[in-house]
Amino acid sequence: MNYILQNELLKLEVCDAGAELHSIQGKQTNTEFLWNGNAEYWKYHSPILFPIVGKVLNNKYTVNGTTYELPQHGLARISNFEKIAETESSISFRLNYSKDTLKVYPFKFSLEITYTLQNSTVNIEYKVINIDDKEIYFSIGAHPAFMCPILENENFEDYYFEFEKKETKSIMELSPLGYFTHNEIPYLNNENIIPLTSEVFKNDALVFYDLNSRIINLKSKNHNKYVEFNFKNFPHLGLWSKPTGAPFVCIEPWFGHADFVDFNADFKEKAGIIKLNINKSFKCDYNVTIHE
User: Fold this and answer.
1) What's the pLDDT tens digit per position in 227-270?
2) Cis bond leading into 106, ω under 30°?
3) Some GO term, biological process aspect, for this entry: which one (predicted)?
4) CB 174 within 8 A of CB 181
5) Cis before residue 51, ω within 30 degrees of 0?
6) β-strands 226-230, 281-291 pairing
7) Which residues contact 245 (CB under 8 A, 6 or more apart)?
8) CB atoms within 10 A of CB 87
9) What is the Cα–Cα distance from 253 to 220, expressed in whole angstroms?
């Protein structure tokens, strides 16, 4: 089921399937900023990544000697959530563990997603609660896709990413199968602009960690409509689109990431994993501000 959340500036559409945001529409000019989910390119709009980000090796991982299987990005994006609260400016969804989730992820959890609309900003908050009788381990991330180009009479190459601060950073190298090597590739040298071209994503996502910037903008050379993305305290940031060319780009803040190519240990030893004690909760959030 889809739900509408709106004010005088923005109209949001959220679905209980995956608790996924389906639309961010600017009401001043009826401009759609979120990717439309055209399956010819990519069927998602803004999936939630939990309890893994990216891939575990061969889609398998081990907890206390037992092997489990999870698809890329985990189970949240393919699960139905329950709506638990709704106001004029916010809506919340919950996914609780079940017999089915325990078969693929052996921890008892509650995952709550809240969308809050304030002026031209959407705040998206993730809350994980440990309702198990032991510590639980997970990664979590976001994968929103934005129209690129935003307007019909433009091209992908008219757009660029702009960090709020100049960065000197490498990107983490991905193998052809989507796992991380231990190599880093120099990418930004006292720069804050990444022009979007057909070559940018030819080797998969650009993955940064520990950036000085907390804000990245998706802008056009042709006009002043843009997306401002505040990824706050997320340590990793992925930028991605289809290497074959597609009219969208993803801005992905992560806690955790895909396995390294040589990872061979228990899930709790996975790079970037979050450990959550009994009865404790973990929160993270990000903001999307629309400049129309």
Assistant:
1) 999 999 999 999 999 988 899 999 999 999 999 999 999 999 99
2) no
3) carbohydrate metabolic process
4) yes
5) yes
6) antiparallel
7) 156, 198
8) 10
9) 22
Helix (H) or strand (E) run with residue 103 in it: helix 99-104
Domain assignments of the chain as residue spans, ordered by start: 2-291
Q: Contact 68/271 with Cβ under 8 angstroms?
A: no
Q: Which residues are paired to 250 by β-bridges? A: 145, 240
Q: Does this model's pTM top 0.90?
A: yes
pLDDT tens figures, 144-197: 999 999 999 999 999 999 999 999 999 999 999 999 999 999 999 999 999 999
Q: How far apart are CA 64 and CA 130, in angstroms?
A: 18
CB-neighbour burial class of residue 98 (10 A; exposed 0-12, middle 13-18, buried 19+) = exposed
What tokens appear for 243 in the block? 């290497």
Residues contacting 174, CB < 8 A, separation 6+: 180, 181, 203, 204, 205, 207, 258
CA distance 96 to 110: 4
Joined together, the tokens standing for residue 13 give: 């559409």
2-291 architecture in CATH? Answer: Distorted Sandwich (2.70)
Residue carrying structure tokens 């609780």: 96
